[in-house]
Design goal:
Elements (H helix, E strand, L loop, with lengths): L11 H18 L15 E2 L9 E3 L4 E3 L1 H9 L3 E6 L4 H16 L4 E5 L4 H7 L7 H8 L8 H14 L3 E4 L4 H10 L6 H8 L5 H14 L6 H23 L5 E7 L9 H9 L8 E8 L23 E5 L1 E2 L4 H13 L1
Length: 339
């Protein structure tokens, strides 16, 4: 991918172009995982013995619940949003467990993946997928950057064993990059309608931009981070739209945790589009969050999310992946692209 016109020029305009290029890749591979230990086939886990590791926190009730109580919540949901850190294998194990609970209790469901784009979805719709190996081979026809084999094979197998349909919930890299680079004023009409149906307040937009800036170590200028907000909003809207279009009684989403937060992501877009339905719709957002060595109070984990309270219905605390420092990696990426 060409990120700059002249490798000998290191001016601010070129750096912005580099930032936009990195931004496009990170939007596809996720802000949480873009500069993580993506090359590790079996990530090393840390803080397995942390006080919160394995605990399940009900945000509204401000209380711990056990797995049986969580199963009851899952079975009562029409929309089940499972938010992950993409390189954490424990998160994928928990997602597989949730799918199994639905299947064991006779629930019919569809499962939409952030990791599968619309182009891949069109190909999948033309065939009957009977194994995780077949699915991965088909997905790998497109060069997406997702490590399906080492991260999602077990989860794919669980979904296929349950007999659930697999849906796409993303745009491919080129589509997303083109849209974000052009700006909101040139959005395709269908995508503009999705965003118009759920406008964000000035405060929500500012909070989103702050989160993106912080997640990229303060290295992005306002113009770049603003474009990334557009990309994030568009992906949230497309994910919600993919779920709404499913004909199954239960709609499951597998996505980065930032996409399932209640205050400004997929649940917000779902609620705005489902408010005219006759029956009440139950949306359950489960954020899987890695523990911090210095924090044992669940409420303290809201701060990194830029929120007064955790922006999920349920938080499932997990061990942490031992990964390289994200800011160090991102700065090295900038230096490499500007050399």
């Amino acid at each position: 991918m060409l990120c700059y016109k002249n490798p000998g020029e290191h001016n601010s305009s070129n750096l912005r172009n580099i930032a936009l290029c990195i931004m496009a890749v990170c939007i596809v591979v996720s802000m949480a995982g873009c500069a993580s230990s993506s090359t590790l086939k079996t990530p090393k886990l840390m803080l397995n013995d942390h006080q919160l590791a394995g605990k399940i926190w009900d945000v509204q009730q401000q209380a711990y619940i056990d797995q049986d109580m969580l199963v009851a919540r899952i079975l009562d949901s029409d929309y089940l949003l499972l938010g992950e850190r993409h390189d954490n294998p424990v998160h994928h194990q928990h997602q597989s467990w949730a799918i199994k609970q639905l299947a064991n209790n006779g629930k019919q469901a569809s499962v939409a993946f952030e990791m599968i784009d619309k182009e891949q979805g069109v190909r999948l719709a033309k065939q009957k997928v009977t194994s995780a190996e077949q699915l991965i081979n088909e997905l790998n026809v497109s060069k997406t950057g997702w490590d399906y084999e080492h991260r999602y094979k077990t989860l794919f197998a669980e979904v296929i064993a349950a007999g659930y349909s697999i849906d796409s919930a993303n745009l491919n890299r080129k589509q997303l990059m083109d849209i974000v680079m052009q700006g909101e004023g040139k959005l395709p009409e269908a995508y503009q309608r999705l965003l118009d149906a759920t406008p964000l307040s000035a405060e929500q937009l500012k909070d989103s931009q702050t989160e993106i800036s912080q997640s990229h170590c303060g290295m992005l200028d306002d113009k770049t981070s603003s474009k990334m907000v557009l990309g994030q909003r568009l992906r949230d809207a497309i994910m919600a739209d993919s779920l709404i279009n499913s004909q199954q009684p239960v709609k499951v989403l597998i996505a980065g945790a930032g996409h399932v937060r209640n205050d400004r992501a997929v649940p917000l877009y779902l609620n705005s589009n489902l408010q005219d339905q006759v029956k009440d719709t139950s949306i359950l957002s489960i954020g899987m969050i890695e523990v911090d060595a210095d924090e044992t109070d669940p409420a303290a984990y809201a701060e990194p999310w830029g929120s007064k309270s955790l922006p999920f219905d349920i938080v499932w605390f997990t061990p942490q992946v031992d990964r390289e420092d994200m800011c160090k990696q991102l700065k090295a990426h900038f230096r490499k692209k500007s050399d």
